[in-house]
């Protein structure tokens, strides 16, 4: 048996509206459930209880006012006065040294030790060689001179 056989047109229209409204409500409820199911959960629900306690404690500490006073701003540097160059320098003559009396000069000259000769200051390896020794060294290091000496020896 079909519904439209024993229902009038008005009843049939009301039944369609009721079915449409109930299906509409069911779909809305289903979509809300799915959205809640796949929505990102807050971090606190995923964590262990100890971790959530720590997070709450950290949040409380962050909300507390700081116990240390805010740093004071640095003082602004004072501008130092620029040095002014003198317009004309005052005349200040240089005094000449006064000469020593004659007796003092001779005593001062006597007390000073004589400087050692220039050769004595240098170590032996740095001193100048006598000219004969230099010639001998050159003769030993020069191959032509060596050949001549060898020929003379025999």
Write the layout of secondary structure elements.
Blueprint: H1 3-6, H2 9-38, H3 43-46, H4 49-63, H5 102-111, H6 118-121, H7 131-141, H8 143-153
Question: What do you see in this structure?
Answer:
The protein has 154 residues and is mainly α. 58% of the residues lie in helices and 0% in strands. It is built from 8 helices and no strands. The protein has helices at residues 3-6, 9-38, 43-46, 49-63, 102-111, 118-121, 131-141, 143-153. The protein is elongated, with a radius of gyration of 59 Å. The mean pLDDT is 76.
Provide tags for this entry.
154 residues; mainly alpha; 58% helix; single chain
**How would a crystallographer describe the biggest sheet?**
none
Counting helices, strands and paired strands, the structural category is mainly alpha
Assign a percent range to the helix content. Answer: 55-70%
Work out the strand percent: under 5%
Unreliable stretches (pLDDT < 50, length at least 5) are: none
Q: Strand tally, please?
A: 0
Q: Compute the CA-based radius of gyration.
A: 59 Å
Shape: elongated
> What series of H and E elements makes up the topology?
HHHHHHHH
Our count of helices gives 8
| Distance between the first and last residues' Cα | 155 Å
């Amino acid at each position: 048996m079909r519904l439209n056989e024993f229902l009038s047109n008005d009843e049939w229209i009301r039944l369609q509206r009721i079915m449409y409204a109930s299906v509409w409500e069911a779909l809305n409820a289903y979509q809300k459930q799915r959205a809640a199911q796949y929505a990102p959960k807050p971090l606190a629900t995923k964590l262990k209880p100890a971790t959530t306690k720590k997070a709450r404690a950290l949040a409380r500490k962050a909300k507390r006012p700081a116990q240390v006073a805010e740093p004071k701003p640095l003082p602004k540097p004072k501008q130092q006065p620029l040095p002014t160059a003198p317009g004309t320098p005052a005349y200040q003559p240089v005094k000449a040294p006064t000469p020593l009396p004659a007796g003092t000069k001779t005593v001062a000259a006597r007390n000073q030790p004589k400087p050692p000769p220039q050769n004595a200051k240098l170590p032996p390896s740095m001193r100048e060689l006598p000219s004969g020794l230099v010639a001998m060294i050159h003769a030993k290091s020069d191959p032509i001179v060596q050949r001549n000496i060898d020929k003379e020896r025999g």
